[in-house]
């Protein structure tokens, strides 16, 4: 059974804190993604990575950075958390474009910044 | 920039009805289109993936079609059941629409 695992289901952090959201996949996928989901706005792509140490900005990268030191792990970093980053964060992985590129998602991390 | 639109935003139907959910996208240069289901507070579950070279995919009571030239995909759900109640999302090359919230009434 394929699996994408996010380290926390719920997280509460204070404004200004540095926050790490971790995602691990066990499918040997090259592509990994971070989205945030907000009511009325749907899922918006923050960053994606198509290989180890490679990253590309999505539609809303401001205030975020990412790290991919190993193929199976993709971390989202909020350098200085703000209340407008309160959201549901979803991680996904897939094989590269051109193949069977079905994307699989983790269970989500609901982050609240107070 | 790819934009994905889903219509309707919400739908309420009696059990047993056949229904169609629509997805349109602006950039037809996509490798694939994928349909997902999301239950409240949960992650996304993949339903169907259509590669750019395919016209449709079927899984059980679900059938998804893809027309790249017109920038459209539809998800057909046959004989709907209360357990189908969820939000349905389409993604064109990893860009998502805002979803259709479906409620099937018993």
Describe this protein's structure.
The complex is a heterodimer of chains A (114) and B (106). Chain A is mainly β and 114 residues long. Helix content of chain A is 0%, strand content 53%. In chain A, a hairpin with a 3-residue loop joins strand 4 and strand 5. The relative contact order of chain A is 0.33. Chain B is globular and about 40 Å long. Chain B has strands spanning 4-7, 10-14, 19-25, 32-38, 44-51, 56-59, 62-67, 72-77, 86-92, 95-96, 100-105. Chain B has no helices and eleven strands. Chain B is mainly β.
What's the helix and strand layout?
The complex is a heterodimer of chains A (114) and B (106).
Chain A: E1 4-6, E2 10-13, E3 19-25, E4 31-38, E5 42-49, E6 56-57, E7 64-70, E8 73-78, E9 87-94, E10 104-105, E11 109-113
Parallel strand pairs in A: 2-11
Antiparallel strand pairs in A: 1-3, 3-8, 4-5, 4-9, 5-6, 7-8, 9-10, 9-11
Chain B: E1 4-7, E2 10-14, E3 19-25, E4 32-38, E5 44-51, E6 56-59, E7 62-67, E8 72-77, E9 86-92, E10 95-96, E11 100-105
Parallel strand pairs in B: 2-11
Antiparallel strand pairs in B: 1-3, 3-8, 4-5, 4-9, 6-7, 7-8, 9-10, 9-11
Give the tally of β-strands of chain A: 11
What characterizes the major β-sheet of chain A? 7 strands, mixed
Instruction: Give the CA-based shape of chain A.
Output: globular
Termini gap of chain B: 41 Å
